[in-house]
């Protein structure tokens, strides 16, 4: 596959994943604010960084590794704001 085709497929799947995440969060009916989305957005940003570094051929650049590390730390910090689910809502899904 050409890099253009891979990019188009990646962007389509990334948009679908973001929309599914937003839909599931709205289904939970938890008003946790923007902080609950930060952890998921960090993971999406990590996937974008890894994809662009793979396309450019710079897999091991210090910049990409440092950005990934910072995003992981931010994601871990904001994971405490993720909505908690009870057993009944898990069984329905």
Shape descriptor reads: flat
Structural class: mainly alpha
Helix % is over 70%
Low-confidence stretches: none
CA distance, first residue to last residue: 36 Å
Q: With helices defined by DSSP (H or I, 4 residues minimum), what is the helix count? A: 4
Cα-atom radius of gyration: 16 Å
Along the chain, the helix and strand elements come as HHHH
Largest sheet: none
Structure summary:
With 93 residues, this protein is mainly α. The protein has helices at residues 3-28, 35-56, 62-78, 87-92. The chain contains four helices and no strands.
Notes on the protein architecture:
There is one protein chain. With 93 residues, this protein is mainly α. It contains four helices and no strands. The N and C termini lie far apart (36 Å).
SSE layout and pairing:
Layout: H1 3-28, H2 35-56, H3 62-78, H4 87-92
Helix pairs in contact: 1-2, 2-3
Essential attributes:
0% strand; 93 residues; 4 helices; flat
């Amino acid at each position: 596959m050409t890099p253009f085709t891979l990019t188009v497929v990646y962007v389509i799947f990334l948009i679908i994943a973001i929309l599914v995440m937003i839909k599931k969060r709205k289904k939970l009916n938890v008003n946790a604010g923007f902080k609950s989305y930060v952890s998921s957005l960090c993971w999406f940003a990590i996937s974008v960084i890894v994809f662009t570094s793979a396309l450019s051929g710079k897999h091991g650049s210090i910049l990409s590794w440092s950005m990934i590390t910072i995003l992981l730390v931010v994601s871990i910090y904001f994971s405490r704001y993720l909505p908690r689910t009870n057993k009944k809502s898990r069984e329905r899904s």
